[in-house]
Write a structure and sequence with these properties.
The chain is mostly helical. About 65% of the residues lie in helices and about 5% in strands. Strands 1-2 form a two-stranded antiparallel ribbon. It is globular and about 55 Å long. The C terminus is likely disordered.
């Protein structure tokens, strides 16, 4: 008796008139937006400008899509170039088939080009975007659910995935939902990187390397559960070997980088101003960065420049008015001073006159 299971969608595509809306493509697009959004927040928190992550993603995303498709086509070439197959299907990305290894490798090349054009160190950008990439993978894996692909072995667990399609050799039944396992694992990887980055102040690409190493661990055991066709080397699927090699490289990078370049980058984006671009993304509600930014903008505004140009004439005019206002006061002070000095002068004159008359009287007495 079927008690519980995860149903598969009857169709992986809906039509809006003649326009097909594919679930796989929607999952990829939503994942990209989430990665850019989270990466932007982390980049600004590190001292970068708002919008830089999106500008570089314009280079990284197309390169990543091409790299992911190339890896899938090369490792599963028989699906497109064997007898009875149409090689044109190799270009139909919307039907599924993106290898994360190729997407990350070639996407890094695109990111390097974008970073170089802006004078930004690639490791710092990779650290900021790493948790977002993990979340993008978690969302993108649901595209496999829409296409009823990449499931695991048969199971009777209550969370079994019910496959109903019989196309391309599928056998309807109940299987391990490996797409769900990997989606949940990627969410855990994103949270791990965010926590470790805050706890240990990871820098110089070590947060990205931690994401790579942690993803490889989960991918190895999830890959082992899958039943879709794949190339095997010494009894292991090709992706298992890839995960092992990449894991060792990531761990080696973390160890060597921590010894040679400990700590974080002091500057991640030359010319970024914390009181300007960073203040726009502040969410603490204190308002101080915003006030500083407004003061700076006011000082740099054209009207402020015009006022500064007018200052000399305005100052001269104000000085002239002040001088004119001061003249009556000075004149009044002079008049008051003269008025106060007049009695003193009269007193001196009278004293002098009295002395003269006294002398004349004495002279006349002598003569008499």
């Amino acid at each position: 008796m079927e008690l519980a299971y995860i149903p598969s969608p009857s169709h992986g595509v809906l039509y809006l008139g003649p326009v097909p809306l594919r679930g796989y493509a929607f999952c990829i697009i939503i994942g990209v937006f989430v990665a850019v959004w989270l990466g932007n927040r982390r980049w600004v928190a590190r001292g970068g400008r708002v919008g830089t992550v999106a500008d570089i993603a314009v280079w990284a995303v197309p390169f990543g899509l091409v790299g992911g498709r190339l890896y899938h086509v090369i490792t599963d070439y028989e699906l497109y170039f064997s007898e009875g197959r149409d090689w044109v299907d190799a270009f139909k990305v919307w039907e599924g088939g993106l290898g994360i290894w190729g997407a990350i490798a070639l996407g890094a090349v695109g990111a390097w080009i974008g970073c170089r054009r802006r004078g930004i160190p690639l490791p710092a950008y990779a650290d900021a975007i790493a948790p977002g990439i993990a979340l993008a993978q978690a969302i993108g894996r649901w595209g496999n659910w829409f296409n009823q692909e990449l499931y695991g072995k048969e199971t009777d667990l209550p969370w079994a995935l019910h496959i109903t399609s019989s196309a391309d050799g599928r056998v309807p039944g109940y299987y391990h939902p490996t797409f769900l396992y990997e989606s949940l694992w990627c969410i855990g990887v994103a949270l791990l990187v965010i926590w470790a980055d805050r706890r240990f102040k990871l820098g110089h690409g070590r947060a990205f390397a931690l994401y790579v190493a942690a993803y490889c661990v989960g991918r190895a055991w999830i890959e082992y559960m899958r039943v879709d066709d794949a190339h095997h080397i010494l009894g292991l699927r090709l992706n298992d070997w890839t995960a092992l090699v990449v894991f060792l490289l990531a761990v080696t990078y973390i160890v060597v980088s921590a010894k040679k370049r400990p700590g974080r980058e002091a500057v991640v984006e030359p010319g970024a101003d914390a009181s300007g671009d960073t203040a726009e993304a502040a969410t603490d509600g204190e308002g101080t960065p915003k006030d500083d930014a407004e003061a700076k903008n006011a000082a740099q505004s054209p009207s402020a420049g015009k006022d500064a140009e007018k200052d000399p004439a305005r100052t001269a005019s104000e000085d002239g008015s002040a001088a004119a206002a001061a003249e009556p006061s000075e004149a009044k002070a002079d008049t008051d001073a003269k008025t106060d000095a007049k009695p003193e002068a009269d007193a001196k004159t009278e004293a002098a006159g009295g002395g003269v008359k006294k002398d004349e009287a004495e002279s006349a007495g002598k003569k008499g």
